[in-house]
User: Fold these one by one.
Assistant:
Number 1:
Amino acid sequence: MKILAFAGTSNRNSINKTFVTSTSKYYKEADDSIELLDLNHFEMPIYSYDKEVELGIPQLAHDFAAKMDAADFLLISLAEHNGSYTTA
């Protein structure tokens, strides 16, 4: 099974990154592969319809979506931020 794990944050010192890294170790079987992503490697501008029409969808968005599409299992740690999730 191909497992993709990441924390929904851009904070380099996030407890969610530590949590998802630690938790991912419990899913390691002989035939599993785990890829830990850092969302900082997929930084994109705030969505704008006008920019999408003018410039298209950013390549990093395509790259991130391809990684998610290729995974059999997603392991995500999201922090609560003012009653919702962070924008990352």
Number 2:
Amino acid sequence: MADDIAPASIDRPLTIAGRTYRSRLLTGTGKFRDLDETRRATESAGAEIVTVAIRRMNIGQDPGEPNLLDVLPTDRYTILPNTAGCYTADEAVRTCRLARELLDGHSLVKLEVLGDQRTLFPDVVQTLAAAETLVKEGFQVMVYTSDDPILAKRLESIGCVAVMPLAAPIGSGLGIQNRYNLLEIIENASVPIIVDAGVGTASDAAIAMELGCDGVLMNTAIAGARDPVRMARAMRLAVEAGRDAFLAGRIPRKRYASASSPVDGLVG
């Protein structure tokens, strides 16, 4: 089947901070019932990058507790420590420094600095400040942000290796609320654009990819599903289908019907 695809439509791999990945679905590790379900859902999703809330998940800081790295080992997955739960730039920077110590110098991090406990929207001022500090300290920063095209470009210019605009509030499941802002971000970016937050079901993930996003990160949509392992598989297939649709190029939208076959030259 792949041999029949036009060369111009053959995809390039997702590349982040110089490393390439086959999967464009990034998954979280929180909110699952236990570590075994985390493992099974991650495998079903086909994810290669998994994000970990350093303040909530044990990756070695609590020797007596179950360790996530026992089920998602670093030789198989890229662990992406995140600063979930941080509300200031200083908190976020300290959390990233801790993650680097725990992961033996690992420099790839997901920065998120929240501005409000109810909506979990990012504090963009604190996010910018934290990003500047982390980049100067040699971190490779993937950054959660609002869907503001100007801010996205600013974060890229600071040196962030990926920009991760929200589709909707974290955990809301509302899907993509402003596709035009996302398109503006995608069309002007020189780094990967990965939708982060707000995805609720497979069709949301497909739409993100059809718009041209480089990937989708999700946690609640999988972990909160009635069957997380099955939903993880659905999300994997949706991301793959959406990417293929983007590369293939959709037909234009029209107000009126258009015949599937030409009518010129028909008898009678």
